[in-house]
Amino acid sequence: MTPTFRLRVIDEHQKQAFVHDYSGRVELGRQDRDDPGPFSQKFEAGRWRLIVARLTEDTVSRCQLTLEPLEQGRIRLRNPSKTIPIRLVNGEEVRPGETRDLLLPAHIYLSGKVIYVDLPESLPEDALQELPEATRPPGAFEALATRAGGLGQAIAAHDTAGMIRSLRVAMEVLQAAASSFDFFSKAAQAAADLVDLDSASVWLLRDGEWLQEAYATPARVGRSARVPVSRQVLDQVRRRAKTLWDKPTSAAAPASLDAISAVVAAPIMNRQAEVIGALYGDRSLGDASSGRDGAITELQAMLVELLASGIAAGLERVRQEQAAIAARVQFEQFFTPDLARELERHPDLLNGREREATILFCDIRGFSMISERLKDDPPRICRLVGAVMDRLTECIRHHEGVVVDYLGDGLMAMWNAPADQERHAVMACRAVLAMLEEVPALSSQWSEVVGGPLKVGFGINTGPVIVGNTGSRAKFKYGPLGHVVNLASRVEGATKQLGVPALITGATFAQLDGTIATRRVCQTRVVGIADAVELYEIHGEDPGWKADRDTYETALSLFEAGQLPAACRVLHSLLAGRQQEVYDVPTLDLIGRAVTYLKAPSGKFDPILELRSK
């Protein structure tokens, strides 16, 4: 009977583009001018010609390789091209003019495509026995314990001491493998040694294809040639999700299984009870040198299943470690390293919930004019924003804040979420004072570029917010929502009209501990929010500023009580005798409002300042 083989081509998009069985020589190469497109075939000169590359692909010659089936599951590969080598899955090359005999299955790389060469398969569904219960996914420890009890009963009827030693070795190997880089190799070697197989291999499903991850033989075999693996057995394991073993006795069994004589294969499952791989083993029947009859027993199949469960647990551990690393990388874009580690331990902190938080908004003043000035130099605009955001972000993270988002020329940050921070309002204010100290250096660096001093405004508010992932499944964004957030944004906008760099609300002020210098600036109604809000300026340590602060607050109290002339006299003392180019804007505004009401005494007096813009 002429040996046959199956040829599959996986294209650049990792999709199966061609599959066909052949019983004679096949030539693979580049398209001729009169040939149809890639993945077409024609029979000429006593052999099949398969086109795997377009006319323009110069990495493949017209006749790049030929394949000819041999007996005992082997294939003869020849490279008739003059200049282009062929690369195999193990990294070896078949140079131009060389011939190589390969044991199936074989994988060949050709112009970005993968050529899979394997034996045709026609294994009947009932050719193998199966264990009565499916292999359990990782985490089903109570089920695994039940199965182990059954294994113990079987051990009692056999070599108890020997089997216990085997189990101990198996668990030691798997425990070590779960944290090592050669996990699959150790697992395959354990299966080969403990179950006394001729060979064992670990296979994983990748985009619907079986790919071998490890291969091992016991020391007694002493061979390097690989026995062909039945993809049909692997497919049955995938479909039935159970451990299969025995010698296929059907006359329709493929030649690969006739050569192996007996197989065992156990599914590797994920937490969703989906088959993601298999632990596969084979053994020859009637091996006189070993004294075995070759048959694989139910007990040995159970041991292979136990090893497969260990592999699944190891894969789950690797998955969790990779997820933790990915989460940490993602978290550290927003959170301090300490907080990122806390979130790894307690991911439920990221669930949506209501909690009190302090919210900060800030942005670069006059950025529209700066952008207009630099409109012909976009890279410089990006460098300016990047330099400012770097400095501000460092200050926020140094004071244990979370940078929620970058908003063009500004940013939003918060405190007391996701983790508890007892003095969150104080921490936010100290972060703002640290950022204000950075502004002069930034201004000195960029003033010539922006055409004047660089200024940044800050607004802070404290209160109940909804926090959680406010992004999407595709893009994570942990942040706050609600009225408190909107008001914090309006307060940042108010700094432009009130002429001070940093403002906080009365709610934030109420949580300060007296260590932050503040000045009550006014009561105001901001755009889009009906209720009036108290605004306070925060300032660094400056005895002269504190003296003026006290005078201003006295005048503000007189103004709000309707004692307008007295308020003007107090405010005048802040201006008299001052030799400065820039006066305090809140002082000037308060005088202006008092004078306006004095000029129209019949009008309705309202001490609350209406802000007309955001």
Describe the structure.
This protein is an alpha+beta fold and 614 residues long. It has 15 helices and 27 strands. It has 4 domains: 5-118, Tumour Suppressor Smad4 (Sandwich), CATH 2.60.200.20; 129-320, GAF domain (Beta-Lactamase), CATH 3.30.450; 354-538, Alpha-Beta Plaits, CATH 3.30.70; 542-614. Helix 2 (160-177) packs antiparallel against helix 3 (183-194). The chain is elongated and about 115 Å long. Residues 140-157, 250-260 and 287-291 have low confidence and may be disordered.
Question: How is the topology of this model organized?
Answer:
Layout: E1 5-10, E2 16-22, E3 26-30, E4 41-44, E5 47-53, E6 65-70, E7 74-78, E8 86-88, E9 93-94, E10 99-103, E11 106-110, E12 113-118, E13 129-130, H1 141-156, H2 160-177, H3 183-194, E14 199-206, E15 209-216, H4 231-240, E16 244-246, H5 255-260, E17 262-269, E18 275-283, H6 298-331, H7 337-345, E19 353-364, H8 367-373, H9 378-398, E20 402-407, E21 410-415, H10 424-450, E22 456-469, E23 478-481, H11 483-498, E24 502-505, H12 506-509, E25 517-525, E26 533-539, H13 543-560, H14 564-575, H15 585-599, E27 609-610
Parallel strand pairs: 3-5, 22-24, 25-27
Antiparallel strand pairs: 1-2, 1-12, 3-6, 4-5, 6-7, 7-10, 8-9, 8-11, 11-12, 13-16, 14-15, 14-18, 16-17, 17-18, 19-21, 19-22, 20-21, 22-23, 24-26, 25-26
Q: What's a quick, concise take on this entry?
A:
With 614 residues, the chain is of the alpha+beta class. It has four domains: 5-118, Tumour Suppressor Smad4 (Sandwich); 129-320, GAF domain (Beta-Lactamase, 2-Layer Sandwich); 354-538, Alpha-Beta Plaits (2-Layer Sandwich); 542-614.
